[in-house]
Structure formats: structure tokens, C-alpha cells
Amino acid sequence: MDALLSSEHERWASFDDLLAEPLSQLRDFSLQGGKRLRPAFCYLGNAAAGGDLSDPVVLDAGAALEMLHVFALVHDDIMDGSLLRRGEPTVHHHFTQLHEQGEWAGEARRFGEGMGVLVGDLALVLADGLLTGASREAWEVYNELRVELVMGQLLDVSFAANRSADPAISQKISLFKSAKYTVERPLHLGAALAGRLDELAPAFTGYGLPVGEAFQLRDDVLGAFGDEAIVGKPVGDDFREGKPTRLVLHALDVARSQQLRPALEVLSHLGDPDLTAAQIVAIQEVVEATGARAAVERRIEDLLGSAVDALGTADIDAGARNHLIDLAVYCTRRDR
Questions:
Q1: Which of 68, 200, 208, 297 could staple 184 via S-S, CB 3.0–4.6 A?
Q2: Is residue 5 in a domain?
């Protein structure tokens, strides 16, 4: 990724100085951190299938997944109006600030968001280019992953806007935006590169979907209760956005079924972008008191057990199996 992005920066910055900053932002954002989970699952899927890990296409596939994730994050931050990512200004907010500081023509917000969209688009194009040498079967997996990612985001944006409380839709969003995108499809891609997708797809799905769901649930818990200094973004933003997470839906269901008027009053402020720190604490207390957090934690542990069981009889490399179990534990019990 560093070699690719540095080369692209040199190429386009020499063409015109105006292109230097967008390329710098893409390179810096891509390399500054992140968990690199999707490349890890792709790599381990290939290793578990007995693939040739020295084949450059395996490294390229991992880099493609990470660049695709950069595209998704940059666009997601624009849709959510997020100002911070990994403790730094989001890409679109960086360009908004540049516009304001330079007193440039036009509206700063629109400029920032426009530049963010284009930086994300470039990440997507570069991701696709990295998979040029992959097999047709691998491309079929990758294409399905991309479609599922967009469908999950479409559901997420629509779900939040219409204030639906349907847990079935929340489950579908988690399936596409996390379970399939983060774990199942990268594993399938790794197996496809090794030529064993048909054989291993059932086991990788049995492992990947519960790990992916648990990963999203842990994300929801961290978004509501995490340590802001560790998480790298403001805790409580999900409350400000009115995001219908499993935590929120469970709390609302309990408050309504038991007619807990004070709790309902507190939860009625969900979706207010100007929530104060005190209001966020009040919502956290309601989520705790209704048993929502405890219920989600139990679900995470159940999903972890299901994932480990799914690998039990699969014909895969023993070392890769152990790494997959370790990665499942990390995904479900992480603090960032």
C-alpha cells in the first residue's frame, strides 16, 4: 500500500500541485492505523486452504480489501458527519478546514465533502486495480462483497432516517456491513485464491457470520461506552446520530414494554446532534438499567462459541485454525 500510494502521489503531484494534498490525505489515512482485519481474514483463509502464501496475488488481495475499506470509511464519515477518525480529522473535515483557513471561494462544507467523495472514489479504483491478477472465481467473491457493502450502507442510511425500530432490519445491516464484509467474504476470497472455495465456503460462513456479527456488536458497545482516547472517536456519536443499534433497540423495547416513562423520556433525545455530555451519560445509564448492554454481551459470547464450533470439523491447516480462533477472540473482546 505504501509503495502504491507513494508512487501515485509522486505521479500526480508532479502533474499538478493541486493534486498533491488529496493524494497525501489518501496515503496518510490509509497508512496511519486501523485493525487490518479484512486482509488478515483473507490471508488466513488462504493459509487455512493450503494456499501459496508467497504468491504476490495474496498480498495484493489483502491490500485491495484494505483500500476498499478506506473508500468505505471516507464515504461513511461524510454520511455520518463525523469530524474525527482514529483520533485525527476525517478526510472531508480536513478539506473543509483547509477551505476555511484559506478563505477560498464557495461553501467550505460542500468543498470538503466533495473532496472526501473523490478521495474515497480514488481508493476504490486503486483497490480494483490491485486485484488485476486474481482468478475469475476470486473476482466473483470480490464483486459480491462490494455489492453487499453498498446494500448494507443503503439499508443503514434509510433505517436511521425513517427511525424504524425493526430489529430484523438492524440484523440485515449487521449481516452486510459487518459479518459478510469484514469476515465471511475475505475468508472466501482467500479460499478462492487457493482454489478451495466450494469446499471450504460452508465452514468459513459458519465461522465468519457469527464473528462478523459479534464484531459489530462490540463496535456498538464501544461506540456507546468505550474509552474515547482508545477508540479514537467521540463516544456517544451513535446516540447523536440516532443509530438503531442492538443496544438502543433493546433498551427501547424494554422501556416501552414496561412503560418506563423516565427511561423513554431520556431515549426520546436519541438522534439529537446537539446532545450534551450529561444527556449521553443519561442514555448510557438507561441502556445499562434496561439490561441492554448485558444482553448484547451475552450475545457476543454465544456468537464466539458458534464461530469456534464451526471450524471444528473443517479440513483446514491446524495453525491457521488456531490463528482464526485467536482472531475471533480479538474481534469480540477488543477495546478499540
A1: 208
A2: no
